[in-house]
Design a protein that fits this description.
Number of domains: 2
Shape: extended
Strand content: under 5%
Oligomer: single chain
Structural class: mainly alpha
Length: 393
């Protein structure tokens, strides 16, 4: 202790702590970062200006949470409102990828890509025109014949004993007359016609939109694929490109297989209907061929439509037609379609059926159409990527 320190101690003044150079060995000082009263090294609560602890602002937290919920709700509504547009884009992209092998085939025949795309589009437009031309005149003739023969059918129905007893017991004719002459009948008929017109307009708009989008996607498909591959790191880009090109090839093979199965169904239907003397053999054959493009239930729908059309002229022959199509459906489902699809997409029939059911449950008809190529893509990824990595572990 120095003389100055002794003097200060004698005068009663506080002695300052010794500096680092004056510390004696073995002395310990408290860490300045430690806090008194803090158990377990927990930091102290930050005091406010008034000296109290800082508390969370529950109003701000609730307001921000409400804004988040509102934003999520608006986003869900926007996506649901634009759901039809997403479906159009998905279908158009699917068709563009499926028709790409035909375009490549035309390009190998020394045709420019724009000319190949134009040729495919003209063929599609021609097919739609022929289909409508074969459907509309017979349908209008059937409606005209039905309207013209309706009074005679009603007279025959009134003369039937069963109908007379039914009318005497339940006043069927009086109920029908009251319903037709009622004030709401015209409004209901007009509303029904407006609803049918709206459905037809929506269908035409959807068809035109998908057609235009398919045209643009076919023109820009190589660029879209190149940009998609650039999102993959360079070290893995070559393998991803190989898998992506194989997926595109399988989607094209799936569409080609569906067209082959539908064409076979249409040819068989035309030959049978022509053999039994149906006046609308070509029309019904086109209906069978188009509905056969629908997975699982397409052939059944076409068979029912053709059988019903034949049964209107001859009920016995309509029953024969139904039996013929049921037999052909079994042959197509268990012999033709599995072999074509196994060669096209290399997917087991059980996977095809399961995928079509799940796709139909999620997106309806569009989901059923897209489910099988999606299953083929997932199967390819499993075989080329997932299973080899699991085997190396």
């Amino acid at each position: 202790m120095t003389v100055d320190q002794k003097t200060s101690q004698g005068k009663g003044e506080p002695v300052p702590p010794p500096t680092s150079g004056d510390e004696e060995p073995g002395t310990e000082h408290d860490d300045p970062t430690e806090t008194s009263g803090g158990d377990g090294g927990e930091p102290p609560e930050t005091p406010l200006a008034s000296g109290g602890p800082r508390r969370p602002n529950y109003f701000v937290m609730g307001f921000v949470g409400a804004l988040g919920v509102l934003s999520a709700w608006l986003l869900v509504n926007a996506l649901s409102g634009a759901g039809a547009v997403f479906v159009y884009i998905l279908v158009a992209l699917f068709l563009a990828v499926g028709l790409n092998p035909v375009i490549l085939l035309l390009q190998r025949m020394r045709m420019p890509r724009w000319a190949a795309i134009l040729t495919v589009c003209l063929f599609l437009a021609l097919f739609i025109t022929v289909f409508v031309w074969t459907i509309v005149p017979p349908l209008s003739d059937q409606v005209s014949s039905f309207v013209a023969g309706l009074p005679q059918a009603i007279d025959q129905l009134q003369n039937a004993r069963f109908f007379r007893e039914l009318d005497q017991r339940y006043d069927v004719l009086a109920r029908i007359r009251d319903m037709v002459t009622g004030a709401d009948f015209g409004q209901q008929v007009f509303g029904g016609l407006v609803g049918v017109g709206q459905v037809v307009f929506n269908w035409l708009f959807a068809t035109f939109t998908v057609f235009i989008l398919t045209l643009f996607f076919m023109a820009s498909l190589p660029g879209i694929m190149d940009v998609s591959y650039r999102f993959v790191p360079r070290s893995r880009r070559e393998g991803v490109r190989e898998i992506g090109d194989e997926i595109v090839r399988r989607i094209g093979a799936f569409i080609a297989g569906q067209l082959v199965v539908a064409a076979l169904g249409g040819v068989v239907a035309f030959l049978f209907l022509w053999a039994i003397g149906s006046a609308y053999a070509l029309t019904l054959a086109l209906v069978v061929a188009v509905t056969a493009l629908i997975p699982l239930v397409g052939t059944t729908i076409g068979a029912l439509v053709a059988s019903l059309a034949v049964a209107l002229g001859d009920p016995l022959m309509g029953l024969v037609t139904l039996i013929f199509f049921l037999v052909y459906q079994q042959i197509e489902s268990y012999v033709l379609a599995p072999r074509v699809m196994r060669h096209a997409v290399d997917v087991a029939p059980t996977v095809n059926i399961t995928a079509a059911l799940l796709g139909g449950a999620l997106l309806g008809l569009v989901g059923a159409l897209l489910a099988i190529p999606t299953a083929a893509a997932l199967t390819l990824v499993l075989k080329r990527v997932i299973f080899p990595r699991l085997e190396r572990r």
